[in-house]
Specification:
The complex is a heterodimer of chains A (354) and B (307). Chain A contains nine helices and 15 strands. Chain A is α+β, with helices and mostly antiparallel strands and 354 residues long. Chain A has two domains: 237 residues, Alpha-Beta Complex (Naphthalene 1,2-dioxygenase Alpha Subunit, Chain A, domain 1); 94 residues, Rieske Iron-sulfur Protein (3-layer Sandwich). Chain A is globular and about 65 Å long. The two termini of chain A are 30 Å apart. By secondary structure, chain B is mainly beta. Chain B folds into two domains: 109 residues, 3-layer Sandwich (Rieske Iron-sulfur Protein); 170 residues, Alpha-D-Glucose-1,6-Bisphosphate, Chain A, domain 4 (2-Layer Sandwich). Helix content of chain B is 14%, strand content 37%. In chain B, α1 crosses α4. The longest helix of chain B has 22 residues. The model of chain B has no long low-confidence stretch (mean pLDDT 94). At the A-B interface, β3, β8 and α7 of A face β13 of B.
Chain lengths: 354, 307
């Protein structure tokens, strides 16, 4: 049994998601994620612990970002110090080749876009990460995908894939009832999946001390569209809540970098789940990559054949349309944030501090 | 496409005054040799008399090439017939008695030929890289370059270096060339590439959109150059790609793995491609290359029309 509920957009402007099914379907099927390059956004370029006095190199859509610290403060530059200021400086950095930079939630964030538009309020809210960082090292890591970032995020927001591709980690499709709700505004999309009596996730059964055969699950995926970052927040009963920060930084249009935080500080220290769950990213990411890697070249050009969709794809379809709407607005020169990405989203994702 | 391109059809050391050499540009056979002044000459490898390959003949002391079949002798500078030995006469031959001559230039240890004599010559190279080699690969020219873009390991090897699937910069046009930068790891025990935060080295590939001639630069994360190379793939007969290459290992190479590159050949150009690996290699950069070449060609056409 599947119920789909929709939501009312929060913006005062026209909703990018048309109520006309034909218009909506046309948008969904014009999806060429490879061509989407969104600007004026903060990207989590590196874990704070990765940035020291020696420059490290990152990229957003091939645009080089060199990160290091001066007097403890992070610096983001278009040029390596050994390279000097090149004559081919881009419009994304200031006269010294420096980008706007922030440090929050244990990440160094770089601004990609017009430096004059950089503002702290455009940095996404992540309620379950401490603003000052400091999550234990074993809860952070890096994984990479050789696919375009929007495909990675479309993969994430479609949680039904997990029942098959990641069944050995998070459990299979067996359950009594599934409900999917989708909320959106012009800058975010949030999918809430509620499962009744779902097969227990093996990782919780084997390492988390969950003894029952089924559990009640509420999984939330919230994507900040421009920054290409996602939260994956799961409440499990019985079981511990899962707090994953899942950025998909587009290093190029066809390669994605994921500096994740699996914050299991909510799990008791004597519970192995606290230490095992962060390492699940290595297994799960390879499973995802096995599908998204061959998918990616097939989304690099407009395709005459339309994708087929099921009602379970609602969140993914809306993600496509919202991303396209942002891209179209930016193509017209409109880079305004119509919705506040830094507003507290705890209530929406159901986070109560645990 | 092949007409207005300067193709690196030979390395300097492959061509001598002693013996003519046959090369191809696509289905066009060419004979190369050096004349008495050491200047490289290029004619169609086809005697206009009875179509015998001139490369089966010899180079005379005068620097002219003589067909091995009936001794017809040609001036490499313009292809003009200068002698038919059996005629025993001093007669001059009309201009139509000539072999087809091609533009030829030598620079940076490569000999380049252009089938269209009106095409401007490339700028001379600043340096001749000391290491070099030639391979003939049973893969067509376009697919050879696509393989280089999508996974260099299919066509080359660099001592101690493992190419990752991840790019620092995707294929883009820079000053009329196709340029990408690939993240690499040293081939020592290390954290797997899909889970690596940082890579110690990158390989920058800068490719001419028409000829596919590619400059390779391996450098470390502090921008120290470690290896420079030029790879010159030329379409040959029957879909074979002839690859001439030159390389130089930089003398100053910080780090143990970089220093160990000097133990043996630092660059290997594979003589064959692993078909099983090639078939399943997903295209990515090569898809960009198709689009970029179209854009460059359209722009060039507009500029020529405007001129």
């Amino acid at each position: 049994m599947l119920d789909i509920q929709d939501s009312i957009p929060t913006a005062d402007h026209d909703d990018p998601i048309s109520s006309d099914p034909r218009t909506f379907a046309a948008k969904v099927n014009s999806w060429v994620p490879h061509d989407i390059v969104l600007k004026d956004a903060w990207f989590p370029l590196a874990h704070s612990t990765s940035v020291g006095t020696k420059p490290v190199r990152r990229a957003i859509y091939s645009q080089p970002f060199f990160l290091w610290r001066e007097s403890g403060q992070p610096v983001a530059s278009e040029f390596h110090p050994a390279e000097g200021l090149s004559a081919s400086k881009s419009e994304y950095s200031d006269a010294q080749g420096r980008y706007p930079v922030m440090e929050k939630y244990g990440f160094v964030w770089g601004w990609f876009g017009n430096p004059a538009n950089a503002a702290p309020q455009h940095l996404p809210d992540i309620p379950y990460l401490p603003e000052e960082g400091g999550v234990p090292e074993h809860m952070i890591g890096t994984v990479r995908f050789d696919c375009c970032a929007p495909l990675s995020l479309e993969n994430l927001i479609d949680l039904t894939h997990a029942d098959f591709l990641h069944a050995d980690v998070v459990g299979d499709e067996k359950m009594d009832k599934e409900t999917v709700e989708v909320f959106h505004d012009s800058e975010t999309i949030t999918m809430v999946r509620t499962c009744v009596n779902k097969s227990v996730a093996p990782v919780m059964k084997w390492f988390g001390g969950v003894r029952s055969d089924v559990q009640q699950v509420r999984q939330v995926i919230r994507i900040y569209l421009r920054s290409h970052v996602a939260m994956a927040y799961g409440r499990f009963s019985p079981g511990d809540n899962v707090q994953l920060f899942h950025p998909c930084v587009p290093e190029t249009r066809d390669r994605t970098r994921l500096d994740y935080v699996m914050n299991t500080t909510n799990v008791k220290k004597r519970n192995p789940f606290r230490y095992i769950m962060p390492t699940a990213s290595y297994k799960v990411s390879r499973q995802d990559s096995s599908m998204t890697s061959p998918q990616s070249p097939r989304y690099m050009r407009p395709e005459a054949r339309k994708d087929l969709h099921s009602p379970l794809d609602e969140a993914g379809q809306k993600y496509r349309v919202l991303m396209l709407a942002l891209a179209e607005r930016q193509a017209r020169g409109d880079f305004e944030y119509r919705d506040d990405v830094s507003a507290d989203c705890s209530e929406l994702i159901g986070y109560d501090g645990t | 496409m092949t007409e207005a391109v300067w193709w690196a059809v030979a390395r300097s050391e492959e061509i001598s005054k002693d013996k003519p050499v046959n090369v191809d540009i696509g289905d066009q056979p060419i004979v190369l040799w050096r004349d008495s002044d050491g200047i490289v000459r290029a004619l169609e490898d086809r005697c206009p008399h009875r179509r015998a390959p001139l490369s089966l003949g010899c180079v005379l002391g005068s620097g002219m090439i003589q067909c091995g079949y009936h001794g017809w002798t040609f001036d490499g500078a313009n292809g003009q017939l200068v002698d038919i030995p059996n005629l025993k006469s001093e007669r001059k031959f009309p201009p139509v008695y000539r072999a087809r001559a091609f533009g030829v230039t030598e620079s940076g240890g490569f000999i380049r030929v252009c089938l269209d004599a009106k095409t401007p010559q490339p700028a001379p190279a600043e340096e001749t890289l000391p290491l070099s080699g030639t391979e003939n690969v049973a893969l067509d020219h376009d697919q050879y370059i696509n393989a280089l873009f999508d996974d260099p390991a299919l066509v080359i090897g660099i001592r101690g270096v493992r190419f990752s699937p991840y790019l620092m910069a995707e294929l883009k046009e820079q000053d009329g060339r196709l340029v990408l930068e690939r993240s690499c790891q040293w081939a020592s025990p290390h954290w797997p590439a899909p889970f690596s935060s940082d890579f110690p080295i990158t390989l920058k590939i800068s490719t001419d959109p028409a000829s596919g001639e590619s400059d390779l630069l391996l450098r470390d994360d502090q921008f120290n150059p470690l290896l420079r190379a030029t790879l010159a793939p030329v379409p040959g007969a029957r879909g074979v790609t002839q690859v001439r290459w030159r390389a130089k290992l930089e003398a100053k190479r910080p780090g143990l793995m970089a220093k160990a590159m000097g133990l043996g050949d630092p660059l290997t150009v594979h003589s064959h491609v692993d078909g099983a690996a090639l078939r399943v290699q997903k295209p990515s950069a090569s898809i960009h290359a198709v689009e970029l070449r179209k854009e460059i060609a359209a722009r060039t056409e507009r500029q020529e029309t405007a001129a």
